Amino acid sequence: MYQVVLGKVSTLSAGQLPDALIAQAPQGVRRASWLAGRVLLSRALSPLPEMVYGEQGKPAFSAGAPLWFNLSHSGDTIALLLSDEGEVGCDIEVIRPRDKLAFAGKCGIQPRRTC
């Protein structure tokens, strides 16, 4: 089973999280997305299983929980992918319009000239 949950970082309230979990949140620019991820997890799973962190800091459920998850965020959008089949990964990207000519110029590409 796979389950995808999407949300907006700006609208997910950390008020529903336990104080101990809120206290673990990093300070600075990562705080809002970190808390939003925990809110998505707590909405998808109740009660929220104990979490552990790998050597590189990746969060996971403790060995007793037969679930795996991955969180991704871009801009104000956050995605949660849950699985009971093994490790999973997800990536979300907000697509922004770009000026292709300006981008090409930054890369050193010159427009073709005709005579």
Key traits:
alpha+beta; 3 helices; 5 strands; 23% helix; Ribosomal Protein L22, Chain A; 115 residues
Chain-wise SSE layout:
Blueprint: E1 2-8, H1 19-24, H2 31-44, E2 51-53, E3 59-61, E4 68-74, E5 77-83, H3 100-106
Question: How would you sum up this structure, described in words?
Answer:
This is ACP synthase. It comes from Salmonella enterica subsp. enterica serovar Daytona. GO terms for molecular function: holo-[acyl-carrier-protein] synthase activity; magnesium ion binding. The chain is an alpha+beta fold. It has one domain (2-106): 4'-phosphopantetheinyl transferase domain (Ribosomal Protein L22, Chain A). 23% of the residues lie in helices and 23% in strands. It has 3 helices and 5 strands, in the order E-H-H-E-E-E-E-H. It has helices at residues 19-24, 31-44, 100-106, and strands spanning 2-8, 51-53, 59-61, 68-74, 77-83. The strands form 2 sheets. It has a 3-stranded antiparallel sheet, covered by helices on one side. The longest helix is centred in the first third of the chain and has 14 residues, at 31-44. It is elongated and about 65 Å long. The termini are far apart. The mean pLDDT is 87.
